[in-house]
Design goal:
9 helices; Rossmann fold; alpha/beta; five-stranded parallel sheet; OB fold (Dihydrolipoamide Acetyltransferase, E2P); five-stranded mixed β-barrel
Length: about 450
């Protein structure tokens, strides 16, 4: 058997290195991937490039490097065009040269970055979140809330001591119309990965006492545009969309747009603009009140003027009115006097004749009634005399008494003294025995 030729590992590595370096298709090739574990050391940028499927499983992975001289230029250009730092979890399009090292293995050297691809990916992700909010039917919920006529109780979400918060408070409380506001700061982190959870926690705290507030203001000063990427947070946007109070977003500058601007009731360009908008609402309500007051004053003035004119007319007509009224009354009285005389002749004289006839009839009726009453009294007297005890005694009856009271059989006791009354006198007797009709029967 012939002896098989063997290479050392370093010889094979040099052969692979030569083949890779000689292949023009492996130099300056554009690829798309997702960044992982991005770190900067000594000015150089070290990272991993990965490709994932829709389920998040890794399909490919490679180490990559951006050397310091190139990284300074590429990082500055990437920030200027995308508004964010070159970091992990970004989808990127990069131009790479494939290198193979005997010790470090396969590596990709990044020589160029296409910022438009990353910016387009961020816009794509935001568009997907907007579409999801719209599909769930919540994107317009906060934007359709009705504002109070004068929102004066303001719950503020901002960072403690932030310049934007200071600008907002100064603008709000130094308004020329001297409108009064009630404010309270609910602190939150407004940059980095904690932005979403921190603002959601502040919103939950406000919701627990929502009856004390008219609206919520979320404000942050300008700062780095890259920090605004943390506001493209779906859970935060969903919370604001469904929040029961109107929300004002005052984050960044006029050119800055975040996902929150699509769901909040009101979007202004800066914290100062948020204060100006609230002041304008108050001044508008104050102007309406002043217009109403002016209209009321004019209406009262016109009414009083008309009343004064009417009063002057009445004052001028009053003396003549009294004289005319007296004259009319005098004429009515004279006519009444003349009418009374004729009425007396027609009505009173016949009634006097009737009264005379009534007098004769009344005397006859009275005499008859008295005679009838007298006869009834005589009959009653005769009946009473016939029924009196004396008449009964004269007919042979007696009355038995005990101790001065009429006695019944049930009241008698043997040996008891009783009094018997006759028509001619009385006798006393003692009861020997008592019997009733039933015993005799």
């Amino acid at each position: 058997m012939s002896q098989t030729q063997a290479y050392t590992l370093s010889q094979l590595s040099r052969r692979i290195t030569t083949l890779v370096a000689a292949d023009a298709y492996l130099q300056n090739v554009w690829i798309t991937a997702e960044t992982m574990d991005v770190r900067v050391s000594g000015g150089h940028c070290y990272l991993e490039l990965v490709e994932k499927d829709e389920q998040g499983r890794q399909l490919a992975r490679a180490r990559a490097t951006i050397w310091a001289t190139t990284f300074r230029m590429l990082a500055a250009k990437f920030y200027a065009e995308t508004g964010q730092q070159f970091r992990s979890d970004l989808k990127v399009m990069v131009c790479v040269a494939v290198n193979y090292h005997a010790v470090y293995g396969l590596a990709l050297n990044i020589v160029a970055i296409n910022p438009a691809f990353t910016l387009g990916d961020a816009m794509q992700r935001r568009a997907k979140m907007i579409e999801q909010l719209r599909h769930e039917g919540i994107i317009d919920m906060n934007r359709t809330l009705v504002w109070p006529a004068v929102p004066q109780r303001i719950a503020i979400i901002s960072a403690q001591g932030a310049d934007g918060y200071g600008d907002f408070m100064h603008q709000l409380y130094s308004n020329a119309s001297r409108l009064r506001f009630t404010t309270r700061l609910f602190t939150a982190v407004l940059q980095g990965e904690r932005t979403g959870p921190s603002i959601i926690a502040a919103l939950e705290e406000i919701a627990a006492e929502q009856d004390q507030w008219d609206c919520v203001v979320i404000i942050r000063g300008g700062g780095a545009t890259s920090d605004l990427a943390s506001f493209d947070h779906y859970d935060l946007a969903a919370n604001i969309a469904q929040f029961p109070l109107p929300v004002i977003i005052g984050i960044g500058h006029e050119r800055d747009i975040t996902l929150l601007d699509y769901v909040a009731n009101m979007r202004v360009k800066t914290p100062t603009a948020a204060a100006e908008w609230l002041i304008q609402r108050g001044e508008q309500a104050l102007g309406n009140l002043q217009a109403i007051a002016s209209a009321m004053l004019q209406a009262v003035t016109d009414r009083l003027s008309g009343c004064h004119r009417q009063l002057a007319f009445i004052e001028g007509a009053l003396p003549a009115a009294a004289t005319n009224a007296l004259m009319r009354a005098q004429k009515r009285l004279e006519a009444a006097q003349m009418g009374v005389g004729s009425i007396a002749d027609r009505r009173i004289l016949p009634q006097l004749a009737r009264l005379d006839s009534y007098a004769s009839t009344l005397r006859q009726a009275t005499t008859y009634a008295i005679d009838r009453a007298r006869q009834k009294l005589d009959a009653s007297e005769t009946l009473l005399k016939a029924l009196s005890p004396e008449a009964t005694l004269r007919r042979g009856y007696t009355i038995t008494r005990i101790a001065g009271h009429s006695a019944r059989l049930a009241d008698l006791r043997e040996g008891e003294i009783v009094e018997t009354v006759f028509a001619q006198g009385t006798i006393l007797s003692q009861v020997k025995s008592i019997s009733n009709g039933r015993e005799r029967e």
